[in-house]
Amino acid sequence: MIQSSEKEPGKREVILSAHDVTVAFGSNVVLDKLDLDVYRGEILGFVGGSGTGKSVLMRSILRLIPRQSGVIRILGEDYDKVDEAKKIELDMRLGVLFQHGALFSALTVRENIQVPMREYLDLPQSLMDELAELKVAMVGLAPDAADKYPSELSGGMIKRAALARALALDPDLVFLDEPTSGLDPIGAAEFDELIAQLRDTLGLTVYMVTHDLDSLFSVCDRIAVLGQKRVIAEGTIEDMLSFDDPWIQSYFKGKRARMIPDRTSQERSSPPQETGVTLESGQESEAN
Ligand SMILES: Nc1ncnc2c1ncn2[C@@H]1O[C@H](COP(=O)(O)OP(=O)(O)OP(=O)(O)O)[C@@H](O)[C@H]1O
């Protein structure tokens, strides 16, 4: 592994770490001894070719898919070594926005947001209503959206409602699986702005699986690239542009990328902080 960082890694709090993680389905090894750190307060963009295992890693971190080996630490705690009460405590620190929102169609937005509250907290209905309304406002939805069913919402509103549900328990870390997929460019840009705003105001850490180059260029502080069953490169968008790797070059400098105005020199809402920048040595990427 080449360390090509100009900055000193390791000064920031690691909120999530995956070490030596292997996940396989029968003989299909999807992740093989993967390592990844996520730092508190950052927006990490997680990219890789289709079918490389981005969702599998996210689901494995969330314990929805078993792994064959490896250690996953959330807020410094190894899930496998803590008791049930601590597991629940850790689960409450995580929020998830699944691809396509995954709202319960028979529940209103308010009721959807209250699902995790009912599962984990014992609050009076009036307080849960107040909290749900707060979350609705927080994600930029009009107050009357709270009483609508998912079928009555636009694609962008569904994403926002799902984000409100992900924020229901005031998590430290939110996982977003392709949050801007299916949105038009304006809706996607607005959603990106919302994510950046929430990170800045709530101090959220965001783990975002995405194919959206706009998001990667505009809001992600750091990017991790999945290929060859592990993370083959990590760093800022500027680092990605300079990595000598065919898949990374074609992904970040290809035709679609060239259509994005050069924003790498512009200030982001929160500039990237000191992070390690790594590229697996001597390997031709097969991220696609
Ligand atoms: N529950 C499962 N059972 C068996 N194989 C699975 C399962 N979930 C995922 N896979 C396999 O794991 C591999 C990675 O899938 P994954 O959905 O993580 O890809 P991805 O990188 O998120 O792709 P995309 O960008 O297209 O969403 C694929 O080969 C997929 O078929």
From TrEMBL:
Q: Which UniProt keywords apply?
A: ATP-binding, Nucleotide-binding, Transport
Q: Which InterPro entries match?
A: AAA+_ATPase, ABC_transporter-like_ATP-bd, ABC_transporter-like_CS, P-loop_NTPase
Region of interest (Disordered), ranges: 259-288
ABC transporter domain location = 16-253
Sequence ranges of Polar residues compositional bias: 267-288
Q: Which domain of life is it from?
A: Bacteria
Which GO molecular-function terms appear in the entry?
ATP binding
Instruction: Enumerate the Pfam families for this protein.
Output: ABC_tran (PF00005)
**What's this protein's family per the entry?**
Belongs to the ABC transporter superfamily.
Q: What is the name attached to this protein's record?
A: ATP-binding cassette domain-containing protein
